[in-house]
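To start, an entry.
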Amino acid sequence: MRAMNARPVHSTTIGALCSNCRRPVRDCVCPRGAPGAAEPPRPRVGRATQGRAGKGVTTVSGLPLSAAELDALAAQLKKCCGSGGTVRDGVIEIQGEHRERIVAELVKRGWPAKRSGG
């Protein structure tokens, strides 16, 4: 029999929990620098050419958003870059080389984006 104050070992509904306040990481209320404080997710903006006949796309991964929110953000980024794109397996793909512009746009929207790759 489980004790009443035992924490769940695994949950598929809320994702990772902060070790300090026991809230979902995206809803963590711990001050930065506190032991166990959740680090905000850091989106990675890179470039890929695999399987595209040498044509490059800019990829944005690591965003903890739902599918609908990813689609909306992808539409805004495509409009910002004046280019086409799609969302595949939780990764936003924008046609062409737009890493600097997308990093600047994500930072402006409050995401601590980081450029990955060369």
Summary: The longest strand covers residues 44-48.
